[in-house]
Each structure stands twice: as C-alpha cells, then as structure tokens.
Amino acid sequence: xxxxxxxxxxxxxxxxxxxxxxxxxxxxxxxLSVAYQQASxxxxxxxxxxxxxxxxxxxxxxxxxxxxxxxxxxxxxxxYKSEIIATYRAESALPDGxxxxxxxxxxxxxxxxxxxxxEGSFIAASIYTKGPDLRKMFYPIGPIVVFGAxxxxxxxxxxxxxTISAFAAGCPVIVKAHPxxxxxxxxxxxxxxxxxxKCNLPLGIxxxxxxxxxGVGSLLxxxxxxxxxxxxxxxxxxxxxxxxxxxxxxxxxxxxEMGSINPIFILENKLKKDCSVLAEDLAQSVTxxxxxxxxxxxxxxxxxxxxxxNLAKKISESxxxxxxxxxxxxxxxxxxxxxxxxxxRKDKLDALYSSESCSATIGSVKASKFLNDHSLTEEVFGPFxxxxxxxxxxxxxxxxxxxxxxxxxxxxxxxxxxxxxxKLLSLLKTKAGRILFHGVPTGVAVIQTMxxxxxxxxxxxSRFTSVGTDSIYRWLRPVAFQDCPNDLLPDALKxxxxxxxxxxxxxKMNSAAL
Amino acid sequence: xxxxxxxxxxxxxxxxxxxxxxxxxxxxxxxLSVAYQQASxxxxxxxxxxxxxxxxxxxxxxxxxxxxxxxxxxxxxxxYKSEIIATYRAESALPDGxxxxxxxxxxxxxxxxxxxxxEGSFIAASIYTKGPDLRKMFYPIGPIVVFGAxxxxxxxxxxxxxTISAFAAGCPVIVKAHPxxxxxxxxxxxxxxxxxxKCNLPLGIxxxxxxxxxGVGSLLxxxxxxxxxxxxxxxxxxxxxxxxxxxxxxxxxxxxEMGSINPIFILENKLKKDCSVLAEDLAQSVTxxxxxxxxxxxxxxxxxxxxxxNLAKKISESxxxxxxxxxxxxxxxxxxxxxxxxxxRKDKLDALYSSESCSATIGSVKASKFLNDHSLTEEVFGPFxxxxxxxxxxxxxxxxxxxxxxxxxxxxxxxxxxxxxxKLLSLLKTKAGRILFHGVPTGVAVIQTMxxxxxxxxxxxSRFTSVGTDSIYRWLRPVAFQDCPNDLLPDALKxxxxxxxxxxxxxKMNSAAL
Lengths: 514, 514
Description:
The structure is a homodimer of 514-residue chains.
Chain A: E1 6-8, E2 11-13, E3 20-21, E4 24-25, E5 30-31, E6 36-37, H1 41-59, H2 63-79, H3 81-92, H4 96-119, E7 126-128, E8 134-140, E9 144-147, H5 161-169, E10 173-176, H6 182-198, E11 206-209, H7 214-222, E12 228-232, H8 235-247, E13 254-257, E14 264-266, H9 268-287, E15 299-303, H10 311-319, H11 330-345, E16 351-354, E17 361-366, H12 367-371, E18 384-390, H13 393-402, E19 406-412, H14 418-428, E20 432-436, E21 476-482, E22 503-505, E23 508-510
Parallel strand pairs in A: 7-22, 9-10, 9-12, 10-11, 12-13, 14-15, 14-19, 15-18, 17-18, 19-20
Antiparallel strand pairs in A: 1-2, 3-6, 4-5, 7-8, 8-21, 16-17, 22-23
Helix pairs in contact in A: 2-4, 2-6, 3-4, 3-6, 4-5, 7-8, 9-10, 13-14
C-alpha cells in the first residue's frame, strides 16, 4: 500500500494542506491513482533535525550493526519485490527485464557494502606510536541528502548507491524522492524504515520526502544541519544544487554526477576492419534503455581519411527495426524532441538519420564544422548519437583536446593504430573518469575498481565516484586521536584491535594487537 | 642574490612597468632593500599556460623521477641554507631556533614524500579481472596554485607541504609568494627551478609569482587552466579564494586551512589536581611563536563548580616575564591590537590580564556570558586566549555543542572525569580534525597519521588534510582503464607489476605479477 505521505522519523505524516502530485504511466500517459503530498517547510526541518539528533548514535554504531541494517533492507526488498516491480513498471514503463535487472543490481550493490563493512579496512585505521601517540581513522561527516534519479528508480534512488554508501559510512540519510517514481520510492522507503525498526536503530536516520517543485530539494540542501549531498541527473539540476550548497554559511560537499556525452574514438584501421560490427554494437549501446543511461555514447569520433565510410547511416540501419520502450517521462521525451528539432532547424549537421520505428536518431557532421560549434558538444539525453568524421590524425587530436570532462571515453583501435592511440590517450587521461579500449561505455560494473564520475562538468568533484564501494569516501573524513586513553578510543583504533582490522601501525600493515 | 623578479617557465622575467613592493623587518620596521615586482596579467597567463602544457609529461613521470626532483630540492635547500635562513630571519624576525627548526621541518616533509613515492602504494592500484578487465589508480588533477602562508615562510610556503605534495602527485605548481617574505620565497624558488633543470623536467612545472595586491591570487585562482588550490591563512582570505573558485565556469577544489580557536576543555578533577602545571603549559602554548600558529589555543573551557580557581590569572602570571619576538608583520600586530581593544572597549569579558613584557593577553568570562555572545568565538590571531568558566557539566556540554568546526580540540580529564569525557567526546568528534587528550595542540607532527584540517570553518573540506603524506589526496583523482592493452597501461597497472607495488587484485592485496 502506497500512502502518498512523507516519512519523518519513522512516521508517515499526513498533511491535509500539502500540495499534491501524481505519477504518470509513460506508456499510456495516464496519471496513476495515488496523490503524493509535497513535504512542507516544517516537515523538512523536522526530518533534518531528527537526522542530526540521530547522527552521534548512528555514526558510532559497529560495522556489524550496519551490516544488519543493510541485510534487513535486502530482505525487505525481496519480501516486497513483486509490489516494488509492479509500481516500478507502472511508473517507468521500462520492460520487465530491465526492472528485474535493476532490482538485482540494487540488491548486489547493498551486498558489496555488506562485504566492505565485514572486511572493514575502508576505515583506514592508522596508528603511530613513536612520538605523541597518534591514531587516525575515517568518521562519517553527518546527515546526507540523497536525490532520487529519474532514470534509475531503484539503483540510483531510495535504496541506491548514494543511500547505501552513506548508511555504510554511518551517515543518516534524507531521500528526496524523484517525482516521476514517487510510488516506487515510497515502497522502498517502507522497506528501509521497517529494517531500521527491526535493528532498533534511531528512526531519525532515514526520512523520505516528496515534492514536485525544486523547493523541497533547495530547502534540504540549504539546511544548516545537512552535511553532504548525493545527486545523479542533469547538469542544470546538479549545478543548481552545487551552487546552493556553496552559498550556505557553511559550504558542504555535493557529489553531483551530471552525465556526459561519453565520446567513442574509432581509429582508422579499426574502422576499416570492423565497421559493420561496430555499427551493430553502437546501435545497441545508443538505444539501450531508450538512451537514458549516463554512459550513453552521444559522440562517435571516427578517423576516415578516405571519407568513404558513412558510419552514421550504418548505425541507423541497425536501429531501423528496433522498438524502444517510451522514455521514463513525457517531459524527457519533449526535451529530447526539442533538442533534435533545433539541430534540424538550424541545419547544424551534415545529415540526420531518424528511425521510423522509434525516436532513435543518428547525426553526422564533419570535424571542421563540429570544432566550430560548441553547442554540438551538449548532451542530447536520449537515443541520439552524433558521428563526427575526421579526415586526419591531427583533426582527431584537435577534437580530443577540445573536449570537456566526461564520465567515460572509449578508444577503439587496432595494434596498427597504436601510434595515434598513445597520443590520444595522453590527452584523454585528463578528461575522463573511465577509459575503455573495447566495447561500449553503457553497462557499469558495480565493483571497487569502477570509477563513475569524472572531471567537471561530468561531476562536481572528480576525486570521488558514485558507483562502487569507493563511493563511501564521499561521506567520510579523517579524525586523529592524540594520546587518547584506550577505553575512549573507537574500537577500530583500540590497542587490542577487537575488530581484527588490517591497520597501518608505524607504517606497516598488520592486524595484530598492540 | 635575490632579483625581485617573477619566475616563469625557468626564466626570471623583468618587467619595468611592474608595481613594486618591499618586505619589512618586523623587529626594526625598516624596509629591506630588494624591490619585488608584482606579476602582471600577462605573466600570470604565461605561467599558467606553461604549467598546463607541462602537465601531461609531468603527470606521467615515474615515481623515481619525482623522487629525484624532491631529493634535488632538498640538496639545494641545504646548499643555500645560510642565505635562506638569513633572509627568513630578516623578513620574519623569528628567532634562530625557530628558523632552523622550520627549515629542518621543511626538509623532513620533503623526505616523507620521498618515502611515500618510494613505497608507491598511495597510488591505490586496483585490478579486477573477473568481468570486464577494470584497473584503477590515482592520477594527478592538473596545475595547482599554492599560496605562501604568512606565519610559516618555509614549511607552509614555497617548498612547503602544499607544493611538495602536489609535485609528488605529479601536478605542476604555481606559487603565489607571500608578500611578507618574498625574499625567502624567491631563494627557495631558485632552489626549486635549479632542481627541475638538473632533473631535465619541463620548466613549466614550477612558476613563482609575487604581488602585494589580492589581484594576483584572484587571477590565478580564476584561470581556467588551474585545477586546484592550496592555501593556509585567515578565514577571510581562504573563504574569498574558495568563493572565487566556485564561481568559475569550472569549479575547482580549494583546500584552505583557515585556522581555528582550538578549544581546550579542562574537566573538574583535572583542573583541581594539575591547575599550576596546566597554567605553565598553557602559557607556553599560547605564546609559542608569538601566538601565530594555526593550532594556537584561543579558548580554554574549564569546569569549576566551586568558582574558586582563576586559571586566566594563573596563566597570565606564567607569562609575565616572557619576552616574545615581534609578530611576523606589523599589520598582524595591528589587527591583534585592534581585536583586543574591541574586547576591552565593549566590556565583553569579566577580566583581561595583559602582560607587561609582551603583548600576550589572557581573558576570562563566565560561560553564561560566552554562550550569549557569538563574537567571542572569533579567532584573535596572536598570543591571546580566553578562559571560559563553566559551573556545571551541563554548561560545558552546552558550550561544546555550540562550537563551530576546529582544527583541534583538546580534552583534559582524570579517570574520575571520564563520565563527562565520554559525553563531551561524542559531541567533539563531529567538530574537529584532531582530538588531543594530553598536552597542548601546538606542535603538529608531520606524519601520515596527522590530520590537519577540520570541519568548516577550520577548513573548506574536512575530508582532506594539509599536513602529513595523506595531503597528496587533495591533488589526485581515480582513473579506471577498462580492457586496456597492457602496453598502453600506466606502469602501476601493468600485468608484470614493474613497480613492484602492493596492489588490490580481485579484492586481495599483493605485489605479484598477473
């Protein structure tokens, strides 16, 4: 049962004066029945105060207690799976395979943090005994606001990577549900608050607030007791929250992953050899999830001195018969249509190949034209990609140098292309969080070695990631204890090493007691 | 020989139109002879462009090459030691012991980064082979601007922790010399550029620019090719640079350590037992370096329900006969005198004990008054401390809860005070980067376990430190390589592990080849 209410400190609060909104089935464009209440200023303040009051207790919980919480959330997700999936599908119109896949990914993400907590070394305990006794470890930064992402109702939303990494760190979380899938979000919030009750943790460590207006998010980010923000979405949304957070009396860290055009470079010999296979693979990647992945390849740069290979046309031919699910909301579709219309109207490209069966579109343009029109580097969120045709190595290097920060860059070449690859790589290393040398950038493995983030404007701080267990470092800061009596030390730093952690003691890693 | 010119890409550039300024001997208040040229807008642009152009090469140097650079800087510092120390003393009037101590600390800091590079594990190489081949390591973020600090002409200036950590990371550095010790800074810059030439590294990796106006720093921080900023100094200076960096088209990380009042809490039984010894220790700590350390204890909170112990008076009695060197510049002294005058004029305190032999001053005020006057939490930079007298545990807890972020907090108690200690500690953990349980906060060990930084306003990002080898993480970001051919991988990630690094391979640490 979805209530449409806001969850504050364990209670689903009714507010008869609240502004209300509904979610929409993107397939039928019909509104779904539940009326969701927008959180009021008072409710926001209550939720943040509860989070702040619960922080000291939650921040000092043992790793085992946090594992129990995460496991309880996993169990709850499984118990309510059919209801969650049904609402997810109604609100997103994404196919069953995607829904189940994303559900499982969310469970797996939680599992990776359970393993991280069981292992414990992320806390980076280090001890120095040869001077003043100085012991350092990571400590959580405080209450975090997490914004649900429009394009991932589960994996980047209520119990997604931001919330779970913050819980693992020991930070209370307030989720601002995405209005496109408020029902899915509430169901997951029900699971989380039940898990918190089961674990006898303070109810203030999780609140769930709704709202269609930007006001709710703005008030949350501006609240003096909030200490960090996690966001995945558009550049305009992420940048607005970032700016708001920097204007506070106390600026706070905001990790906003704001997408990118994820350029793919295809070098001359690779293009000649694998043109048809590449066209197939790219068609799949561009249209995957109706182009609504942050790692969707929006730019394909090819080196074709002969000028004879029309890769854009080939990709579009591989798309022709595809039927794509609708985008997750008609607003996103409208924005996509508008951007394509501008490209057409202003005659910015050399060619534009539209599918007849879906809205997927592939453009092509000569590098010389592309390099003179910065607007062509803007993300077109959806199943669109632009093929840029370079006629020389110099042109491809010039184009690479002109790029802004990206989540991913893909560099496809044969061994015979390696001279160019090396030059390109030295440029591209400074531009992306992840560099691929095979395949396509869609599909993000949720493992410690993943990097999801990149130089601005792909994210607001390239030193962090929002995917993989290293994402926990967004919410941790080092605290050093000098000459602290053993019984006042956190367990991770006690002489007897009760957590059996690998610790750096006088420069050497070991798990021994002192 | 000090030229007074700006160093850009290996050349000391003369500009006959430059604004000029001189440094001053704070003891005599006489100007020293050299005329320093303020860097022009063109010179700033040249220096930044040279840094940016040298970045790809320098960022890809081996750890050994960077070790050679740091060792060459150490050697150069030793060769020019007498000239550096003489200029340091003339420009700062700090005593010989301090000058030599700070010189040695600077050498030791460089040594700690040499060890870090020799060991190599800071790069955090991790490899995952059980899916897409995904390998991750830290990569430098790009050219950094370092601001010399007024109070540490060597250890927090030209070849200080910010510059050396950035070099170790592989980042080019542009130093904005502090105008109070432009000569010391130039001599060290001469050492650095000679070392760079000796190592055959690109000359653009280091420039040294002077200026008395804020304009030079502002232009540097605003330059689009600058990717990070290191600053130690006042709140107003650090916050202004931070805000400037956030307003850029591309916001960049600024680590500004902006000082704090470093509260010391003395609990009831500790105060009763060690009152006289504490007064002696505190007198030393408050006046050390004429109170110009970031960790100077500006606030001493005592729990004295009997109301019979006048700790402020006792501390001031221990100071009476001290003779302190002048502050590093008359401007700092003027600001200090002005703040004290305001405290007196507005009758903000219960008592104010001034030394007759020096400008050290100890104030005292009841907690009830302190809690109602936020202005009393502002730092008075210099040999001043305020004793706040609490009459109950509740009052001391209330005061602790009201504190802003601090570099350090010291908690002094007997075993019999431990019930209060525990309660206090849970509050204080969220407020400081370093918590001491013995001694005084002045004196910062330069080791990996040190944390120098703290929640805002002590620093602009509590997740980093500016002292100790972990300060390198301010200038590094993770880059992941997916399915990268072995010969295109950085050495740290190659199959054969040529650097013999400890790497995380499929979740386990080892130094084996793949």
